[in-house]
Amino acid sequence: MTTDPLTIGIVSFAHPHALSYARALGQRADVRLVATDPGPYAPGEDRGAELAESAAIPYVDTVDELYAEGLDGVIICTENARHRPFVEQAAAAGVPVLCEKPLATTVADAEAMVAACERAGVPLMVAFPVRFSPAFAALREALAAGAVGELRALTGTNNGQLPAGRGWFADPELAGGGALTDHVVHIADLVDALTDGTPAASVYAQSNNLLHPTAAVETAGLVSVRYANGLLLTIDCSWSKPADYPTWGGLTLQAVGEAGIADLDAFGERVDGFAGGRQTWLSYGADADAVLLDAFLAGIRDRTAPQPDGHVGVRTARIVAAAYESARSGQPVELG
């Protein structure tokens, strides 16, 4: 296993997590960071070379120049619908990939990305940072130890603000959808981890945009999932938090077993207070993005495929696709 610094590239600043990853990687002595931000950009977006300069991120103008840097790994942070070509390019170059969630906006694209990486022998990891939070680690350990007995059902919430500053989040072509696309996959990934990849058997969903009537995508949804092992999951996903909410939103998960209940608040490590006349949350504890990056870098050095891998991305994409089909038809969707 090499101990030389790894050269890690970031493709696109479209997703806000790109800056979080860049900050975390920029502080590491074992990483050389370089980024590029291929357009097109929406008018007024803070993107490209100017954003890189303001954030002190080493920058090149094109993706070809990025790969000419001799990448050991690449992080894809484009708009959701543009993940596939950049992941396939990385696979062709033999470069391990960390792809922002959701893996793709269609199941076909997700499957094609996994197939391309497997043919090339390239690890493909999906960026689900909540899986790496201390709160989820504690829940996982408690359930494995039998704290609630046999697991029967789970209830998840992932509610946030209408994304600002990146208009593509509410563009159905670039994002693939709204709150269902943005938030269902996080909860689905946690359940995937708890059940060792047990597939969903059926999905029922309802959605609307009553909270933001001018939005071109749904801004709230309720999703029910029945898994092949009989486990039941409900997900409350929305962009329902007001603009003056102290943070972007939050995620919770309640596990119900035959002998008890266990609760997770993924962002509960905080101090509540007021500053400047407004409610403020001061977070503390581990940075889940940084821990996710630790796993990605370890996989590069060890030549292993870290979890969550592309197959998790496909399983979560199937749940989202079925949720949209169900919301359109008003009927449950059975998955083969």
UniProtKB/TrEMBL annotation:
GO molecular function, one term: nucleotide binding
Extent of the signal sequence: none
Top-level taxon of origin: Bacteria
Domain Gfo/Idh/MocA-like oxidoreductase N-terminal: 41-128
Domain GFO/IDH/MocA-like oxidoreductase per the UniProt entry, residue ranges: 136-261
One Pfam family per UniProt: GFO_IDH_MocA_C3
SUPFAM superfamilies: Glyceraldehyde-3-phosphate dehydrogenase-like, C-terminal domain, NAD(P)-binding Rossmann-fold domains
Protein's name in the database: Putative dehydrogenase
Originating organism: Naumannella cuiyingiana
